[in-house]
Specification:
This protein starts with a strand and ends in a 13-residue tail after the last helix. The chain folds into two domains: 5-77 and 321-511, 3-Layer(aba) Sandwich (Alkaline Phosphatase, subunit A); 80-316, BPG-independent phosphoglycerate mutase, domain B (2,3-Bisphosphoglycerate-independent phosphoglycerate mutase, substrate-binding domain, 3-Layer(aba) Sandwich), CATH 3.40.1450.10. The chain has helices at 24-27, 31-39, 63-72, 79-89, 91-94, 96-107, 127-139, 161-175, 202-213, 223-234, 273-280, 325-331, 342-351, 383-395, 408-413, 418-441, 503-511; strands spanning 5-11, 42-45, 112-118, 144-151, 181-189, 219-220, 244-248, 251-252, 261-264, 297-302, 314-316, 336-341, 363-368, 401-406, 444-449, 459-461, 467-469, 478-483. The protein is of the alpha/beta class. The structure holds 2-phosphoglyceric acid and manganese (II) ion (2 copies). The site of 2-phosphoglyceric acid (2PG) has 9 residues, from loops. This is 2,3-bisphosphoglycerate-independent phosphoglycerate mutase.
């Protein structure tokens, strides 16, 4: 054991509001955070854009890039940027995988399918990548393209799906002619169909398989009609719209069949892994009954899991994240512990370790099962259970470094419910109150931060100047507190020079371990 011990708390989605619009963080009753703000070393961190390897400072942060940076102390160009570069340089279309999938569909008189999030949120996907790939497919002789559209409303305005559908349909209409036929074939809200993560609910993926592959489900003449009808019937915002199938004369226009090729155009891994497993796995796949699995070639935009090599084929190499904190602590013989509930479990393990799902020998990981509800119904989520577990980990006296994620600010924030999000943030504060007491008793320094904003901006002004509900992350900075019996001083605490990648070096400094030269600087 090191004689210094550290706990790092990630309050997912708890940023610092600039506009005061829908600021659930300030509205919440948070006596512990308020007290810490007065008595502890404190600064703020940049958690979006260039600070986390995204293409521009207009890109909001997200959990993947945030936890990558927190876990490795470095800034890597991320999926959104790497795919842009690969498309611009033409590397994607020269890749063996692109050629193999295209030639497969052409040789079999088959269809090239695209599945993915129809959005320009740049968190999981970007519609511009999709449009370029469709145009390139035509240029290179593909005859038939079908697109299976997952509706966003979580990284972009909550009911903006029609704009993205129109954009895609306009693009396809400009390409369609006697030699080329592109259409939307199926779809649904991203929180209802296909994009489950961390195996929280395989039924979502089963529904995706039935919808996209088998063409089973409620039929509509086109995607706009589907969205309009389903919205009128359910009142749901885009992310929660039910699944739909586009059909002509009762026949689905784009089932996935033998000889076809399939590209999942999402670049982010967490919500892309399960569908990739369903396409890649052989007969040993047991998560749901796929029926007769069509004989297709499948590729993801990126390799989503660098340890399990999911999927087996992909178009763009992922960032090669090296010298992660877990690796360095492992080499130094220090023991780490990671805990969250299902919805964020992979964030503090797989994203944390550079998108790798295998743990180092010195690590222990704990997953607390999440409720399967819309989190405005249970805004406290598993904050109490996570705290109980942290306290147990502290008392075990086994760990030099403990990390955790409280999901509330983010997961409740995404529902758009201000009242519930306030309760979510209050639940985190209560968790901290309990945690800090025991941490102090056992001599831990506690660092408290967040991976990006969300709860801090529950409202926004739309293009017409109207105030609307915001379900997406914010571009705001996030807080960083040091709670310790030891005296630490943050250098230039009043400046805005720090970002998420400065956290890991600060942890190592406290633990008395030298950081690699590739890392950003410590804040103390
Ligand atoms: O829910 C998700 O997939 C994203 C938003 O698209 O949120 P986070 O990055 O916080 O996981
Ligand atoms: Mn997050
Ligand atoms: Mn989020």
């Amino acid at each position: 054991m090191s004689n210094k011990k550290v706990i790092l708390v990630v309050m997912d989605g708890v940023g610092i509001s600039v506009t005061g619009l829908g600021d659930a963080v300030t509205e919440a009753n948070t006596p512990t955070l308020d007290r810490l703000r007065k008595v502890c070393p404190y600064t703020t961190l940049k958690a979006h854009g260039s600070a986390v390897g995204l293409p521009t400072d207009d890109d909001m942060g997200n959990s993947e890039v945030g936890h990558n940076a927190l876990g490795c102390g470095q800034i890597y160009s991320q999926g959104a940027k790497l795919v842009n570069e690969s498309i611009e340089s033409g590397k994607m279309f020269d890749s063996a995988t692109w050629k193999e999938l295209l030639e497969n569909a052409k040789a079999n008189g088959g269809t090239l399918h695209f599945i993915g999030l129809l959005s320009d949120g740049n968190v999981h996907s970007n519609i511009s990548h999709l449009k370029t790939m469709i145009a390139k497919a035509k240029e290179q002789g593909a005859a038939k393209v079908r697109v299976h559209v997952l509706l966003d409303g979580r990284d972009v305005p909550a009911t903006s799906a029609p704009l993205y559908i129109e954009d895609l349909e306009k693009c396809m209409a400009s390409l369609n002619d006697g030699t080329f036929d592109a259409k939307i074939a199926s779809g649904g809200g991203r929180m209802k169909v296909t994009m489950d993560r961390y195996q929280a609910d395989w039924d979502m993926v089963k529904l995706g398989w039935e919808t996209h592959v088998k063409g089973e489900g409620r039929q509509f003449a086109n995607a706009l009609e589907a969205v309009e009808t389903l919205r009128n019937e359910t009142g749901a915002i885009d992310q929660d719209l039910p699944a739909f199938v586009i059909a002509e004369n009762g026949e689905p226009v784009g089932k996935i069949v033998d000889g076809d090729s399939v590209i999942l155009f999402n670049f982010r891994g967490d919500r892309a892994i399960e569908l990739s497993m369903a396409f890649d796995a052989g007969d040993d796949f047991t998560y749901f009954d796929r029926g007769v699995k069509p004989d297709v070639k499948y590729a993801g935009m990126l390799e989503y899991d660098g340890d399990l090599h999911i999927p087996s084929k992909y178009l763009v190499n992922p960032p090669e994240i090296k010298e992660t904190m877990s690796e360095i602590l492992d080499k130094a013989g220090l023991k780490s512990y990671a805990v969250s509930e299902t919805q964020k479990y992979g964030h503090v393990t797989y994203f944390w370790n550079g998108n790798r799902s295998e743990k180092f020998a010195s690590e222990e990981w704990k997953e607390i099962p999440s409720d399967r509800v819309s989190f405005d119904q249970r805004p406290w989520m598993k904050s109490a259970e996570i705290t109980d577990d942290l306290i147990e980990a502290i008392k075990s006296e086994k760990f030099d470094f403990i990390r955790c994620n409280y999901p509330n600010g983010d997961m409740v924030g995404h529902t758009g419910s201000m009242d519930a999000t306030i309760i979510g943030v209050e639940s985190v504060d209560l968790g901290l109150t309990r945690l800090l007491k025991v941490a102090e008793e056992y001599g831990y320094t506690v660092l408290i931060t967040a991976d990006h904003g969300n709860a801090d901006e529950m409202l926004e002004k739309n293009k017409k100047g109207e105030i609307t509900v915001r379900t997406a992350h914010s571009l705001n900075r996030v807080p960083f507190y040091i709670v310790s019996k030891d005296k630490y001083e943050i250098k230039d605490a009043d400046s805005t020079k720090y970002g998420l990648a400065n956290v890991a070096p600060t942890v190592l400094k406290i633990l008395g371990i030298e950081a690699p030269a590739s890392w950003e600087e410590s804040m103390i």
